[in-house]
Please model this.
Amino acid sequence: QVQLVESGGGLVQAGGSLRLSCAASGRTLSNYVMGWFRQAPGKEREFVASIPWSGGRTYYADSVKGRFTISRDNAKNTVYLQMNSLKPEDTAVYYCAARTTGGNEYAYWGQGTQVTVSS
Model:
């Protein structure tokens, strides 16, 4: 089992920044890929970014490229999502998730943290 706990959400004005954190515990995470997803009211959950826990290429949704950065701190077992130049359309509940390196689906999810961007 992998437990994920997000934090760092809040209310911010357009153009501002937030950093989300995802604290992971449970299994050794070296064989996992960590992802951030988001779900806005009335919309489907969508992929935001991902990073392999052991290092490697990061991926981003087109809508956040150049504004968001995913990173990890192995010593703290924490994954971050730095969000800059926030827009009202970034408003959503943000979820941290984990999947095995060879897997297709994210099996573990956090409870989510609300991000609200005011115009």
About this structure: The mean pLDDT is 95. The chain is about 0% helix and 55% strand. The longest strand covers residues 18-26. The two ends are 40 Å apart (CA to CA).
